[in-house]
UniProtKB/TrEMBL annotation:
Stored SUPFAM superfamilies: Jann2411-like
Top-level lineage group: Bacteria
UniProt name for this protein: Zinc finger CGNR domain-containing protein
Gene3D superfamilies, alphabetized: Jann2411-like domain (1.10.3300.10)
Domain Zinc finger CGNR: 152-195
Length: 198
């Protein structure tokens, strides 16, 4: 995984899209879909979708072993566990034991192994499997939950936005999933309220 480069474009089922940087690749992954009423945001419908998400920048993991249906199931299980654990931490709740167990199980296999090519570029040591990418994502989540940013998990401050992120900014004052989305909407509502009061 490339250090310091996170974020993906999210599509709204009602139309439109926006760039959302969750602050960590594992948290970006947690926003690829979901369960229950979040199923309308699903973007990983088949194994090829998972392969494409892993291959896209900034992750750039081109699997050399085809992604299986079992890999996709494991990926969705990990995604849900990351989502639950991130929201637990953002709300100041104890971490869900089931989510912790799922993250630990996903982290157990060997992660992606980097190597240097002859021309000085970084690549992943083949064979590259989806389970290795999932292990790397799970390990990143473990590092986040147990490291210096453990207290920086935030849910978007908008009343109806469940997006969660880790705030790595120096002041730790990030409130919105994206300024151009919920931040601007909040500013517009505040402006209208001030004008109505006047």
């Amino acid at each position: 995984m490339r250090v310091g480069a996170t974020g993906r474009t999210l599509d709204d089922p009602k139309g439109g899209s926006f760039f959302f940087d969750a602050g960590a690749t594992c948290l970006d992954f947690a926003h690829t879909g979901g369960e229950g009423h979040y199923a309308v945001f699903e973007s990983l419908h088949e194994p090829a979708d998972l392969a494409a998400w892993l291959a896209a920048e900034p992750l750039g993991v081109h699997v050399t072993v085809p992604v299986s249906t079992a890999d996709l199931t494991a990926a969705k299980r990990l995604r849900q566990a990351i989502w639950v654990a991130a929201h637990d931490r953002a709300a100041g709740r104890p971490l869900s034991p089931a989510a912790v167990e799922t993250v630990n199980r996903a982290a157990a296999p060997a992660p992606l192994l980097p190597h240097l090519t002859a021309d000085g570029a970084a690549a992943w040591t083949p064979p590259v499997r989806a389970t290795q990418a999932l292990s790397s994502l799970a390990r990143e989540m473990i590092d986040l939950l147990s490291g210096p940013l453990a207290g920086r998990f935030r849910e978007c401050a908008s009343d109806n936005c469940p997006l969660v992120f880790v705030d790595s900014s120096r002041p730790g004052a990030r409130r919105w999933c994206a300024m151009e989305r919920c931040g601007n909407r909040a500013k517009l509502r505040a402006l209208r309220a001030r004008r109505a009061a006047d």
